[in-house]
What does this fold into?
Amino acid sequence: SINENEITLTIKGTGEQYIVYEWSYIRPSRVYINGVLQSTTGIKVNIEEGDENTETTIKMEWDSPLTKTANMFFTLSNIINIDISKLDTSSLTDMGGMFRSCSSLTSINFGDIDTSKVKNMAGMFYTCSNLISLDLNFNTSSIESTMNMFAECTSLKSVNFHNFDTSKVSDMHSMFQSCKSLTTLDLSSFDTSLVTDMGNIFENCNSLISLNLKNFNTSKTVNINNMFYGCSSLISLNLQNFDSSNANDPQHFFNSIRKDLIFCFDIDKVSALSSSFEGYNNNCNDICFAGDNIKLNVEKEECIEDCKNDDTNRLEYKNICYQTCPDDTHVTSDDLFLCQKKPESYYLDSD
It folds into this structure.
């Protein structure tokens, strides 16, 4: 439980520096600069000494829980990291655009904040172009919109959605648009049964290599325009249960997509997309779609058995799983369960 009600952040530079968005009503009760209580509070501070590389720690305190933090730090490119782990969020309903356009932000500490009442996270990290990874291990059971949530987070390489509950979400428009550093996304926990808008959701994710959307329920989805537009690196795509029966005349569902995509869909469920799928080889029998114990070999652009998820054959050599390493090979890593050709020195060491 959170006993305090505060946010700590680090800003870079000198002069008048905004610590809360200029037009925001979210004004702190107390402000500390490097641990010193300021005589006046507000939405900006004055850093008198230093240069453009000067880093200053700011702590803001509130006397009562906030109900909205929407656009709280919008456009504040001076902020490099934020800690909201001690913020009382028990009454919070809106976090939309909270960190939007914080272009220098590299890390956020959420701790165990209570987000059980939050309904809006739309645009929460929109254009946070320096964020590399995010762990979103908090309660999202009330969220209704994730529109633009990570759009244009161009440096984002990984997002942990382990506890991310999307069962009430209806709008996912442009959720990952232009996340150009993402190579994989694990969306297996997503419940999309109420989603009506998936337009542009993966548009221009041009480093994305593999997507398994087998669990996506799109029976209520109306907008799927530009869904995979510009996903030019996709090797494997599983749309096995994708349903386009309620989609409005889809435009540019696929554009700039490889024609040799390893691809799976049910033709009876995607009649509205028949023109989009022309020229693509639908092969649900490919090993890529055989089960959970499969991984993608990016270099060879093929799917292989994943030994690490296999209870019996846990050692891998030349893309084949073994119970023990084959003759003339040896275990190279207990963590990766790999076999490798024995080097000459191996025999010398054995003697």
The chain has one helix and 19 strands. The two ends are 60 Å apart (CA to CA). The helical segments are 344-350.
